[in-house]
Amino acid sequence: MTKKSEQVLVTIRMDPDQKKKAEQVANDMGIDLTTAVNLFISQMIKENGLPFKPTNDSVAIDLAGALEDVKNGNVTEFNSADEFMKHLYELENDDSSDNS
């Protein structure tokens, strides 16, 4: 870590609403936005890359969420394939009724 006198000023452009929201999140964590950005950069250096996997692939996002559910034990067990198919049918009908 460098001494404060050895630090540099970094200027970035960002959406004002995003900045406000980010400041609120940081403040809720008990830190300021500068500290949050420094933590992000430290983690980026430690991992030699971004500290998250950027994606806009909804399948990858859904799969990652499903895998996390399995790791956390949030699973539903079925006694037969018919029971599983019935469950899928009910989920599909619940989803389609939400979208109407």
Secondary structure: number of strands = 0
Gross morphology is elongated
Largest sheet: number of strands, sense, barrel closure: none
Whole-number mean pLDDT: 86
Question: What level of helicity do the residues show?
Answer: 55-70%
Cα radius of gyration in angstroms: 22 Å
Key structural traits:
100 residues, mainly alpha, 60% helix
What this model shows, in words?
There is one protein chain. With 100 residues, this protein is mainly α. The protein has helices at 16-28, 33-47, 58-71, 81-98. It starts with 15 loop residues before the first helix and ends with a helix. Helices cover 60% and strands 0% of the residues.
Topology:
Elements: H1 16-28, H2 33-47, H3 58-71, H4 81-98
What's this model, at a glance?
The protein is 60% helix and 0% strand.
